[in-house]
């Protein structure tokens, strides 16, 4: 339980940090080929179902010219996903509380393991992969003959979806190891792992573990990554600005709540002290603020410090 709580705290922290860590855009042609692969993999994964049993994973077959890529699919009732999650589906651990948008009765989670094709479909200059790129995408499971389906939008609401990379190539890189998350729209997010080989997400997409390579090529940055014009750069910049603003607001709100808490706590102790003074036998004019009986002079809230001093004098 404790571990879970700390994971959640870490995850929330990470969400805050997300604002500061890098996010970049994929070049358009790379995105197109990756999305085309997603579409084919959906098709091949669905073909693995003949008369599928709900909640059991089925492995699909890929054409021989893509040997090395693995695909699998599991069909679930939407309600079961929301209420029970999936303890373990390959490297993914899907918690309670994952909901899809739009709502469907049954959905199919398609799993990808891009194996030695990872860097072909998800090139990431400045980083090397320590694990294969893994994908988890959700589709409407009503018609298993369907191809060219559009993904559903899924979101983990309470706890994050966890991805545990078991065959992590042992590396001496330690803190240089990063989680990478590719969303379906071509954005790349680099993030710190929860620990070692554990990454967290609230959304679907592709995930892996990378390490910054000491090659001369620069890390992906909005200016370095984007090929193909001002529009992309502008939207990246805009996204960054929005992220910073939202992050700032969240931080401000948290700070505000903290300050308010401290102020209330201080006030409560102050009032309690005054109450004690009053109860210790001095005859003072009393008034009530909320549940507290306080000396009238203090009730006006004008100059509490002076009042305090007066009371201390009265005490002695
Ligand atoms: C694999 O072969 C198919 C034709 O069978 C072709 O359309 C596709 O582009 C090939 N893919 C790769 C990655 O070579
Ligand atoms: C991955 O490995 C398979 C053999 O296991 C090979 O046929 C394929 O060409 C490799 N893919 C790449 C991109 O190197
Ligand atoms: C899917 O295709 C199979 C034959 O390939 C057919 O028997 C079945 O009725 C089809 N199902 C739907 C929902 O179209
Ligand atoms: C990169 O780092 C490795 C050790 O981690 C070192 O052996 C290698 O020479 C470095 N390469 C460059 C280009 O700096």
TrEMBL record:
Cellular component terms (Gene Ontology): membrane
Question: Cross-referenced Pfam families, in alphabetical order?
Answer: DUF1191
Span-the-membrane segments of this chain are 241-259
**Which InterPro entries does the UniProt entry name for this protein?**
DUF1191
For the keyword Signal, the answer is: yes
Q: Does the keyword Transmembrane helix apply?
A: yes
Keywords of this protein's UniProt record, alphabetized? Membrane, Signal, Transmembrane, Transmembrane helix
- Would you say which domain of life the source belongs to? Eukaryota
Extent of the signal sequence: 1-24
Task: Give the protein's recorded name.
Answer: Uncharacterized protein
């Amino acid at each position: 339980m404790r571990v879970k709580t700390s994971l959640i705290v870490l995850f929330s922290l990470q969400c805050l940090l997300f604002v500061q860590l890098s996010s970049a855009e994929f070049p358009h042609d790379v995105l197109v080929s990756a999305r085309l692969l997603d579409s084919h993999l959906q098709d091949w994964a669905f073909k693995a179902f003949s008369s599928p049993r709900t909640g059991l994973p089925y492995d699909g077959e890929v054409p021989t010219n893509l040997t090395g890529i693995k695909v699998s699919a599991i069909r679930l009732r939407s309600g079961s996903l929301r209420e029970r999650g999936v303890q373990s589906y390959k490297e993914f651990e899907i918690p309670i509380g994952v909901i899809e948008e739009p709502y469907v009765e049954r959905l199919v989670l398609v799993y990808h393991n891009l194996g030695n094709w990872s860097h072909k479909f998800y090139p990431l200059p400045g980083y090397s992969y320590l694990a294969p790129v893994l994908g988890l995408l959700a589709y409407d499971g009503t018609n298993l003959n369907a191809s060219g389906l559009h993904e559903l939008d899924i979101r983990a609401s309470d706890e994050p979806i966890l991805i545990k990379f078991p065959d992590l190539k042992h590396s001496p890189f330690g803190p240089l190891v990063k989680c990478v998350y590719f969303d379906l729209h071509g954005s790349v997010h680099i993030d710190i792992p929860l620990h070692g080989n554990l990454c967290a997400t609230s959304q679907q997409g592709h995930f892996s573990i990378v390490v910054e390579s000491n090659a001369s090529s620069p890390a992906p940055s909005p200016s370095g990554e984007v090929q193909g014009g001002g529009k992309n750069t502008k939207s990246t910049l805009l996204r960054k600005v929005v992220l910073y603003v939202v992050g700032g607001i969240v931080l401000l709100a948290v700070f505000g709540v903290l300050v308010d808490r401290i102020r209330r706590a201080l006030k409560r102790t102050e009032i309690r002290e005054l109450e004690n003074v009053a109860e210790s036998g001095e005859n003072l004019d009393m008034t009530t603020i909320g549940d507290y009986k306080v000396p009238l002079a203090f009730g006006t809230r004008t100059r509490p410090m002076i009042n305090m001093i007066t009371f201390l004098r009265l005490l002695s």
